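User: My collaborator and I are trying to settle a disagreement about how two of our proteins should look. Neither of us wants to argue from intuition anymore, so we agreed to look at predicted structures for both before our next call. Could you fold the first one, then the second, and keep them clearly separated?

Assistant: That sounds like a sensible way to settle it. I'll keep them separate. The first protein:
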Amino acid sequence: MDNSMTSSQGKIHRNVIPFTPEGEFYFGQGVRAFQRREFEKAIKWLTRAIELSPKQPLYHCQLSVVYTETGQYHSANQVLMNVLAEFGHDYVDCHYLIANNYAHLGLFHDAMKFAKDYLQRAPEGDFHKEAEELVEMLTMDDEEDEEEFAEEDELMRYQESAFYYMEHEQWEQALPILEEMMRLFPNHILAKHKYAEALFFSGEKEEAIELEEQWLQLNDSSLHTICNLAIFYHLTSNKEAAEVHIQQIKNVYPIREQQQLNIAVTLARIGCYYESYERFNRLPKRKLKGHLSYYKWYSITAYHLGEPSIAIQLWEEGCIRHSGLSTLGGPWGNSD
């Protein structure tokens, strides 16, 4: 072999500079993925870009745009609020983006506030036309409608907060919010069932069961009551009582996606993994990506049915979309 060639190759090898991509590289990848509407990849790339370059507010804002595009308005606003808190209110576009997300969430008074903040700070900004249209749409002349508007807005705010804590299994934080919801909105039935669920998992099992049994007497076809009692009795080893409600659940096929998810999660929690997996497979994923419980229980179900690769894929995707999921343990060591 030619010694000069060997020497040259060795020199080249010694001078190779390892490529360590920084935030800018991942940001570019994320933007391209977003433009191709490959949203899961976009979230992955942008999250990595932020990890490497946390002081780049543009990266955070682009991630929020992807969350908005996929209907994860609460997550989008969390990102944008962090930008305003860390980098100041000079990033005026955040105000409009937050307003837009609040409008989608039904939090119209908050949407109005941030839209007006944007117009005040940037009357000729890039989004001034959109902000003006949003303000116009939200403006109401009738005082009675305005009062109703405010009540719905307040209910949504409570609901969002309670939903967040319960999805992350922070039961103690959810309880006072749910108590206040029941006081302010006594006709809001869902709050009562969520309260019983939070009560049970915070350790007050007997009280939670007693509440749901009382509500069962008032409405023996309530899906929320049936699901809660199936879980409560299963986890307290009252198999006979649990089985009554489990059989009812297996025969229910709701139309609404939220109720379908509730059934699938309930079946997973009581160990009916085959039936749960069937239900999860039927769910419209695009409409439920904002639910941490979708990824948690779908992945646990897949794992218990001998589908570890699917389970891990679901868990990893869930962790990208919901950072709190990673703190709840993987599907291989999680049955509740």
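The second protein, kept apart from the first:
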Amino acid sequence: MKNVKTARPMAALVTTVAAALLVVAPIAAGPAEAAAKTYKNCDAMHRDYPHGVGKPGARDKTSGKPVTNFKVSTALYNANTKSDRDKDKIACEKR
């Protein structure tokens, strides 16, 4: 019987923490996504990010040396997907 009495408060604690995370997590993610700037064109983006912006794990499609020093940001990339002409998940890549 001792284990049953201990398990109930623990289950209540786990439920409370899980509910709190569900409420806080979307709030924490919201401002970061909202803060992503949309650039008019690649020249404008290159002023802030000289080598472009890409998603985590993106690989440059090129026959030469691939660009690897781009800014990694899902939010920035998603705000500027129109600038990813070759659809390699890197917008405005530049060596």
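Some points you might bring to the call about the second protein. The first helix runs from residue 2 to 34. Residues 1-35 form one domain.
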